[in-house]
Write a structure and sequence with these properties.
mainly alpha; Cytochrome Bc1 Complex, Chain D, domain 2; globular
Length: 113
């Protein structure tokens, strides 16, 4: 069972990298486009996938916590209450504009918005 889970995680990771690389030349100008390029393999907007939903994240995290975890999840996962993190770091992948776009996109799922 562990092998199947690890294999599935690896495949999802490769799909995210492949999708991200194919979109590298395209301008990512909306939070939705950043989501589709980098996040969709592990996160869904309102339901749990491999990672927590954006709705859950938006209702629990500040802008700084969200951006810090996207940029460097290995250095933030414990302070956010996680036992582990398999999320890849996007610090060198995303521009500041893209980081702001995805953060705002995540926060748009906060209850009451």
């Amino acid at each position: 069972m562990k092998y199947i889970i690890k294999s599935a995680l690896f495949v999802m990771f490769l799909l995210n990298i492949t999708n991200a690389n194919s979109l590298e030349q395209k301008a990512l100008t909306t939070g939705d486009s950043v989501f589709k390029a980098y996040c969709w393999g592990c996160h869904h907007q309102t339901s749990v996938a491999f990672g927590p939903s954006f709705e859950d994240i938006a209702n629990k995290r500040t802008v700084g916590e969200i951006q810090g975890h996207i940029v460097s999840p290995k250095s933030t996962y414990k302070q956010l209450g996680h036992k582990r993190s398999v999320m890849p770091a996007f610090g060198e992948t995303l521009s500041q504009k893209e980081l702001d776009l995805i953060t705002n996109f995540i926060l748009s799922f906060k209850k009451g918005n």
